[in-house]
Amino acid sequence: MKAIVYSKYGSPDVLSLQTIITPRPQKNEVLVRVHASTVSSGDWKMRKADPFAVRFANGLITPKRKVLGSEFAGTVEAAGCGVTEFEVGDKVFGGTGMALGTNADYVCVAKDSALVTMPANISFEQAAAVPFGATASLIFLNKAKIQPGHKVLINGASGALGVYAIQLAKYLGAIVTGVCSGKKTEQILSLGADQVIDYQTSDFVHNSEQYDIIFDTVGNLSLSYCRSSLTKQGIFVTAAGGLLEFSQMFWTARSGRQKVIAGIANESKEEMVFIKRLIEGGKLTPVIDRQYRLEEASKAHAYVEQGRKTGSVVLTAI
Length: 318
What we know:
By secondary structure, this protein is an alpha/beta fold. It contains 10 helices and 15 strands.
């Protein structure tokens, strides 16, 4: 099969289209023919080993997982022993988490993982753009115990998490403010935001508003910076998962006041089923910034690394 492979850390130029062995589904696995996958900020950070701590998870000198990509949509090509939930030809979408491997013609996925049949009302490209951003946003918002009427601020509202956090928070009954660049205001409002703050001209911490939840999908804020903008029982949610965030989460959990929620949000079948139902009901819209062919993965990585995308960048099959 064809796959985008990298054997050393570095710039997008380390990526190349290669022919590698097609995997075979083991017990309780399905082999998926990938029609579309994505390039995320996590992918370029893995490729570049930025931060350096990436190397502790994926190899100090050279990467152990040589095929990137954690989201996909495609068709079931084969099923291993013990698989009864899926049949050959089923259209499916999902995520592989830290196992990666979706920037390829085929990927093997456990039947009980974040794998579900596709909604009939979206394309493979749209389906591939959904899994991580939507499920991670759902997990974080649920951990923050979002309630109808809550005032929620989404920092990085136009990113891969932000575009789904906006829609999910509105679906769950919140009053939502998005923070993004001014040129993306119209699109974020169209996704359901009640208000948009242009971070290039205004800083939300300087207005008089207080929020029940501040969700930092970018990882460039902190509790200390946002404290005055949170209610007394407010929750600061961050997609960053460093030592500082985990230590703050531990210590604030012991207080009765403002708390921090951080960490890794691993998508599961349960969240994927919920997201699928929202898409089928017209309550959640996939957002794609650009599409590239699989062999153009280097260009896709270079674009994503700029940090200016809206929603997801999709790779389509050769």
